[in-house]
Write a structure and sequence with these properties.
single chain; 122 residues; 63% helix; two-stranded parallel ribbon; 2 domains; two-stranded parallel sheet; 5 helices; mainly alpha
């Protein structure tokens, strides 16, 4: 990427929670998730990216994000079944007037596309 990746504190929380959850999954079934070592490496890499400016935390007005999320929920959840975090991430991008939206989640991609965000990777 030619510029820093801009993220919200919500995204940081979800990323950290997700890598820790993968360790729990791995402890239950060695064919799932990944090891504590891999978790630690991912968290250290994230902290390095934050310290070097490769990832930048942007401020958001959470009441505005929640208002947008309520509208997205009303417009899409009954017909398409979106999860709260997917809606919150898209609402955050809309609040920030993001030019691009990065996701590897097919359902989140569908919602972001419906809201006319340019979704990557394509």
């Amino acid at each position: 990427m030619p510029e820093a990746l801009h993220v919200s504190t919500l995204m940081l929380y979800e990323f950290r929670q997700s890598v820790r959850f993968q360790v729990w999954l791995h402890a239950q079934d060695k064919n799932k998730g990944y090891s504590q070592f891999e978790c630690n490496r991912a968290l250290v890499d994230l902290e390095t990216d934050l310290e070097t400016g490769a990832v930048v935390v942007v401020s958001v007005e959470w009441p505005d994000v929640h208002r947008i999320a309520q509208t997205l929920s009303k417009n899409y959840t009954l017909s398409s079944g979106y999860r709260a975090f997917d809606i919150l991430h898209v609402a955050t991008a809309l609040h920030l007037r993001a030019r691009q939206f990065l996701t590897f989640d097919a359902r989140q991609r569908k919602l972001a596309t419906a809201e006319k965000l340019k979704v990557l990777p394509s």
